[in-house]
Write a structure and sequence with these properties.
The structure is a homodimer. The first copy, chain A, is 22% helix and 30% strand. Chain A has six helices and eleven strands. In chain A, the strands form two sheets. Chain A has a nine-stranded mixed sheet with strand order 3-4-2-1-5-6-7-11-8, with helices on both faces. Chain A has a two-stranded antiparallel ribbon with strand order 9-10.
């Protein structure tokens, strides 16, 4: 793979874009359009939908990379792997270094609250944070590919510009969720609401009389804190949660000392 | 699906077992053997290896479940999905309720430090914690299926018994890693070491002259804290990290207030 964009060649920031809905999704097309107004863009995104992949990586199979667009300030690759694979491959074999900013999305569907843990979009942003790249995941609270993404444009551009300028705290990326409304009230920095999914499976028989199961469920949020992402979104604000990858329950360390032997 | 094991029928605890190496791996066979000495066991594990799946769930495809063993105090199912799918399906469609304990593993390979984020084994335990089930992920620091798992037996049984008796702090599961040694010194409660992977890809050409990429890399740990899992493991101890799913970087909330609009 050639070095496609060298930092020395351009004073514009290099922005790496990925997602989990796949390279053809309207959300990533919209994000590309916005980011091209502020930087040189390299897209490395899954060649098919990879929703709910969590922080999956591909280790038991080789990955494929197809170079689709090769313009001066805009490159596009599709990748056979997960969103995390896309980030790793982009940094190691396409950019040969770190971009100035990584943005993931715009995801079609919420990644607020507990959804962050299942989210391929956010796993790409978290992988960016692990690799010390200022990283933001964007999601809108609607699965429809027809949704009007424009009302959030000024906020997406503003937060991207600020993060480009100031960076983010160490080991932290941003989980940005966008409510569906024509009149967004603003952007609030929040904590992750402690909601969860009450799962249910459709149980059906296939034409060969064998059972199959299809996941469905209902999101439950009993965490009514006004400092949460769910509160912000319900009240017409974009939510921005600083998101990290130290999973230690530090507050619980002393509570489980009795397990030591 | 019938209610396979009803709590009323048995005073022994019901222990749900899963993993990410697949139902045929020696690690899960060993864990089953141990857990059957302290409870009635239901195994719901992937029908194929699902390593590095992170917290992936299957939503775009139906799931299959095969009932393999149906003894009085021991049931075994293989599932076409990820470790998280196994937990969700077990709770919803097999147990029709929560088990008294969920154990995942024994994983062949470390899930200490940053590995927790990529781990299917730990994602099953985290899913357990989300569903308020006392949950433990076990891993041994060797990929070989021939490794002697017996030196850790007494610690695995002891921690499982203690968690059955006392539970775990709210929204917390345990990430237990086992060093490869005949003489384990003990079990230490630790925090997750802030290591990372320096990735590299093998880049090769297939027989049709197309490139493919295969992930490899080197684990780097600059976090030398004696309170970390990596320190414990290097010094002959089993590590137990209380692990949670609030990804908010609480310490960073005030640092990024300037992003608000």
């Amino acid at each position: 793979m050639n070095k496609m964009i060298k930092k020395e060649k351009s004073k514009r920031p290099i922005i790496l874009i990925t997602n989990d809905d796949g390279i053809m999704a309207p959300g990533i097309k919209h994000l590309i359009k916005l980011m091209r107004t502020i930087g040189d863009v390299v897209v490395v995104a899954p060649d098919k939908p990879q929703s709910a992949m969590g922080h999956a990586i591909t280790i038991a199979m080789p990955l494929r990379l197809d170079h689709i667009v090769a313009e001066e300030n805009y490159k596009e690759y599709s990748c056979s792997g997960t969103p995390v694979d896309c980030v790793k491959l982009a940094v190691n074999n396409i950019l040969h270094g770190k971009p100035d900013l990584l943005v993931s999305g715009i995801n079609h569907g919420s990644n607020a609250s507990i959804n962050v843990i299942y989210s391929g979009t956010m796993s790409a942003a978290v992988e960016g944070a692990i690799e010390n790249i200022p990283s933001i995941g964007f999601s809108i609270l609607d699965f429809s590919f027809d949704i009007d993404l424009a009302p959030a444009d000024k906020y997406i551009l503003s937060v991207a510009r600020k993060v480009l300028k100031n960076g983010l705290p160490l080991n932290t990326c941003l989980n940005v969720n966008i409510p569906v409304t024509k009149k967004i009230k603003g952007l609030k920095v929040c904590r992750q609401s402690l909601g969860y999914w009450a799962d249910e499976y459709f149980e059906r028989k296939d034409p060969h009389h064998k059972n199959y199961y299809w996941l469905t469920g209902k999101f439950i949020n009993e965490d009514k804190g006004k400092d949460t992402d769910e509160w912000a979104l319900k009240n017409g604000y974009i939510s921005a949660v600083p998101t990290q990858f130290d999973f230690t329950a530090h507050h619980a360390l002393s509570q489980i000392k009795h397990l030591e032997e």
